[in-house]
Design goal:
Blueprint lengths: L7 E4 L2 E4 L1 H11 L3 E2 L3 E2 L8 H5 L7 E8 L24 H16 L8 E4 L7 H7 L4 E2 L5 E2 L7 E8 L20 H5 L10 H4 L1 H6 L6 H10 L7 H4 L25 H6 L2 H5 L8 H10 L6
Antiparallel strand pairs: 1-2, 3-5, 4-5, 5-9, 6-9, 7-8
Length: about 300
């Protein structure tokens, strides 16, 4: 990522460096969307121990979204995709790890008085609601954040700092979609509107260490997936024509349909670079075998 200029802003007739403005400059160079910083008090805390483990008092958060959709990842008649779109490129956790490392390298020396921490996927807060309050988009019936440009095909992350933000009396509202019901009607497991949807979702079932039952196997065969599920996203009207990601990380090194032979040929390093690696080789291998392996 090229070097960025730190943005200088004027505040009460004084020229002061603004940490969040500088972070936005670095992140937008990397084609990552940035929300407006919001008080941490506006967020639902889901893992308080992660906040308690910080070496500073967290006061605010800037939500970010990295778009990942590309048409090449959709697949074609010649190469049918069997992975969820998010798992076709290399693992997004590695992308965020490298991005946050650069952010810290460039900003920490410039703002020694500011303490901050970065999260993606392992967040201490409810990311979707916070992202909507920060102005990044609206929440769909699927529970996913929907952005104007990239639909719901974004990965969320955040920067939490000890900076005070916000004005007394300011409200931070959550925006929601129109509720057309398409995602609910199309869900293979009929779980988009239930409390335990994360456990009942076909995506979760394909990633479970528990061997799939016959009903799950039938769903996987019907939807043609060995990892993940995109049904609720693909039927969403806000996802009919999403912009392709400008982030090259998510446009190269694509694997649309892994095979048993291909999986066996992967080095450990190659395997660890894929989003389906977190469950180990056994789970994705089991799914491939159950759906016909290299005959599929």
């Amino acid at each position: 990522m090229p070097n960025a200029r730190v943005i200088i802003i004027c505040m009460k007739n004084k020229v002061l460096p603004d940490f969040y403005a500088a972070a936005r400059a670095v992140l937008e160079e990397a084609s990552v969307l940035c929300g407006e910083p919001i008080p941490l008090s506006e967020c639902k805390i889901i893992s308080p121990h992660k906040l308690n483990s910080l070496d500073f008092l967290p006061r605010s958060v800037m939500m970010i979204a990295a778009p990942y959709y590309s048409r090449a990842a959709e697949g074609s008649a010649q190469c049918r995709r069997t992975l969820s779109l998010y798992a076709v490129p290399r693992d997004y956790h590695i992308f965020f790890s490298e991005l946050f490392a650069e952010l810290r390298e460039r900003l920490a020396p410039l703002y020694p008085g500011t303490k901050f921490a970065c999260f993606a996927d392992n967040s201490p807060i409810g990311e979707v609601a916070a992202a909507s309050k920060a102005g990044l988009g609206m929440i769909g019936e699927s529970g996913l954040l929907i952005t104007k440009r990239f639909g719901s095909f974004v990965f969320l992350g955040e920067i939490i700092s000890d900076i005070e933000v916000g004005n007394p009396g300011k409200t931070y509202d959550i925006k929601r979609c129109d509720g057309c019901g398409r995602c609910t009607a199309a869900c293979p497991c009929e779980c988009t509107d239930v409390a335990d949807k994360k456990n009942r979702c076909l995506s979760a079932l394909t990633q479970s260490k528990k061997d799939p039952d016959e009903e799950t196997l039938e769903l996987m065969r019907r939807e043609g997936t060995v990892w993940g599920c995109d049904v609720c996203q693909l039927v969403c009207p806000y996802n009919e024509n999403p912009e392709e990601t400008p982030i090259q990380w998510f446009r190269r090194d694509l694997i649309l349909a892994p095979t048993e032979n291909g999986l066996a040929a992967m080095t450990d390093e190659e395997f660890r670079s894929r989003a389906f690696a977190w469950r180990g080789r056994s789970v994705i291998g089991r799914n491939l075998k159950a759906l016909g392996g290299d005959e599929n």
